[in-house]
Design brief:
Blueprint (H helix, E strand, L loop, with lengths): L1 E2 L5 H9 L5 E4 L4 E4 L3 H4 L6 E4 L2 H6 L3 E2 L5 H8 L4
Parallel strand pairs: 3-5
Antiparallel strand pairs: 1-4, 2-3, 2-4
């Protein structure tokens, strides 16, 4: 897990380009989603964190976003995760 406030913009762009970062999350709400999610783009920089995989996000106690990851969210909501 990488906090947005602890990484420079150029390092962040390089990690996304090299597929080292694939998901973003909200540290306060414990929600993760895709980097293209409109909900994720609105969050404050100090709350934003990044993950290399879904498993990393789940290991840190985050749940899927109901907007950009609908099937995963429904599985989580129904207790299948």
């Amino acid at each position: 897990m990488v906090k947005h406030c602890e990484i420079s913009d150029s390092d962040l762009r390089n990690k996304i380009k090299n597929a080292e970062i694939c998901f973003g999350g909200n540290q306060k709400l414990k929600i993760y989603g895709t980097l293209k999610c409109s909900s994720g783009k609105r969050m404050k920089r100090e709350n934003r964190v990044f993950f290399s995989s879904e498993n990393e996000a789940k290991q840190n106690g985050f749940r899927p976003c109901g907007h950009c990851m609908k099937p995963e969210y429904l599985n989580w909501k129904n207790g299948l995760i």
